Amino acid sequence: MNSATIIVGLGFLFVVVAFFLFKSQIFILLNRLAKIQFRGVKKLQYTDQDMDEDIEPELPIQSWLGLPNEKFIGRIVIFVILSFLIFIIFSSFSGVLVQLGNAEFSAGYEKFGIATYNLALEFDQDLKEAVNNCYAYNTQQQYELAISSCSKAIEIDPNYAAAYARRGYAYLNLQKYDLAIADFTKDIQLIPVATRSYLNRGTVYMQQNQYDLAIAEFTKSMSINPKEPQAWLNRGLAYIQNGQSDLAIPDCQKAIELEEKYWNAYFCLGLAFSNQGKYELAITNFNKAIERAPSAKASSLYCLQGATFTKMGNFESAITAFEQGVKTDVTNENDWCKTALDNARQGIATP
Fold it and tell me: Looking at the 3D structure of the chain, how many domains does it have?
């Protein structure tokens, strides 16, 4: 439902209210319009066969403007009050829809929840603008502006759960971890099955090197939606950081089972096998990750592949991989790769 539809609906309700308040005056007005003689129209003549029949004179019809002032003003006041009440009902209806959407999300009806949330925005244009800006600024990585817009949405409707999730995401990217955790937790309070916030809380704990807490968050997300590949991948990476590569391997494999093109999962497997000294398997999975990864991520993968080759004593292949990693490093984020390349040329393995 768009804004135009809502405006038409409100207009229709106003017309209905006006009709019931002034319907007698409307009929009188229509009656008088019907008696107007238009130019060029002949009046039809009827002859009554019974000339003796008494014809009662037409009763005078009171003009609607001739109503007593008190009665007329009273009806105008009632019309204004009812119109105001209709406006209030429609404005508060947005909040009702948001809470209904939260209930639908919580019950597992995601599509219904999304539709109800979208409908709620159509009944509150201020909320709609704040939410749209909240999303847009996050996408544009303008996190301070995102926080401002998300906060405005929360001020308008404190039950709009998605605004907490988006604001928490902005806080996460600004490394304001306590504020991020608070917002993700609020999102979960409103929608207990909000896996997005379990995943994001886990990401916060990963960045704080609290791997056991991160693993618990990812496990909770998986218990709600076991078909979410990111949860399996994230827990696999957390296991690797926690020195549990043996537990990481089945998680990364499960992520690939759910999403075959998930390059991150092949990267996860490559790290896990490399940590176990299974270098051939590591190289195989790094190759698969490189084939599927966006070009911006290729540099890191080539460098990791090169490091693995040095551990195998295959410096020729290592040099080739490192050179490719340096060549594709458009952001200069892999300076270590240049050092590793120099070491490989001298026959020194990357630790």
Answer: 1
Q: What share of the chain is helix, strand, coil (3-state, %, to 5)?
A: 75, 0, 25
Q: Does residue 104 lie in a domain region?
A: yes
Most distant CA atoms of the chain, gap in Å: 132
Q: How far is CA 7 from CA 1, 87, 125, 231, 348, in A?
A: 11, 11, 12, 43, 73
**Cα–Cα distance for residue pair 268/341, rounded to 1 Å:** 23
**Cα–Cα dist 326/339, whole Å:** 10
Least confident segment among 89-93, 143-147, 166-170, 303-307: 89-93
What does residue 61 show for φ and ψ, rounded to 5 degrees?
A: -100, 125
What tokens appear for 122 in the block?
């159509």
Tell me the angle at which helices 245-258 and 229-241 cross, rounded to the nearest 10 degrees.
Answer: 160
Is residue 270, in this structure, part of any structural domain at all? Answer: no
Q: Does the residue 232 lie in any domain?
A: no
For the chain, give the number of residues: 351
Rounded-to-integer distance, Cα 113 and Cα 93, Å: 15
Q: What is the CATH number of the domain that holds 147?
A: 1.25.40
Domain extent for 125: 89-163
Q: Is residue 6 part of a domain?
A: no
The pLDDT score that the predictor gives to residue 44 is: 44
What's the pTM value of the predicted model, to 2 decimals?
0.74
Phi-psi region of 332 (alpha: psi -120 to 50; beta: other; left: phi over 0): left
pLDDT at 34 over 80: no
Mean pLDDT of 307-331: 93
Picking from 82, 102, 79, the residue whose alpha carbon sits closest to that of residue 90 is 82
What is the CB neighbour count within 10 angstroms for residue 198? 26
Distance CA 335, CA 344 (A): 15
Spatial contact of 272 and 242, defined as CB atoms under 8 Å apart: no
